[in-house]
Amino acid sequence: MQSFVQPEIARTGRKHTAEIVEADVKMLGNAGIGSVNIDLIAGLAGQTRESWLESLGWIAKLRPQHVSVYMLEVDLDSRLGSEIILGGKRYGASDIPNDELIVEFYETARDFLHGLGIEQYEISNFAQPGEESLHNLKYWLLEPYIGFGADAHSFDGKWRWQNVESPAEYMQHFNESTPVTEDRIEANLQQERFFVGLRLTRGIVPSDADRELFAPQISELIENGLLEADGKLLHLTPRGVLFSNEVFGEFL
After folding, report:
1. Residue 76 carries which DSSP code?
2. Which of 136, 172, 165, 132 is closest to 149 using CA atoms?
């Protein structure tokens, strides 16, 4: 979805309208599909406090079971990223809200959704009780999964691998009955438990070995107000959520 505000939708190149999404959500409900996610992006070109509240108002109206809220991250290799680097105006580059405003949008959404009973359970994900995404939780809980198709990734609990990136190359391997996988590496579960598991609001319970290995990092992050220890649990603070990439980097 990204936005319910038509000028913002148009600048992302999307073709939907708020009314189309409203009709689609109703159609899904009538078809017996009771779990719907709507995603919003905080920081779109031209986005204001007023337009952000307009999008959140549609969430209150549609009452989806799950909501994802992403703070805009610009790929510097994209057209928008290149335009920002050059100081240009195309693609809305000059109208991207500053970092402080994007953070404000994110925190406004978090509090607004809480008021609707849609609770945060991961950095970017919010759900009604019992409606958390099982698909996403597999990754954050380090459960095994397998991917099919070009560039799909898999994890068996110990090893990670991906399929060849190009669809043409994938089909060539498939037709020749040769392996489609590449880049098989052994997972470092001690590291991953921190930089994947800490995405969850509930945090993680590090083992004694984990705490010993990362004792300096944990101590410093707690001292800087980015991590909090709650009994055996270790989780991000509200400030830590905003600097989560920096926190995760400490465990790599």
Report:
1. T
2. 165
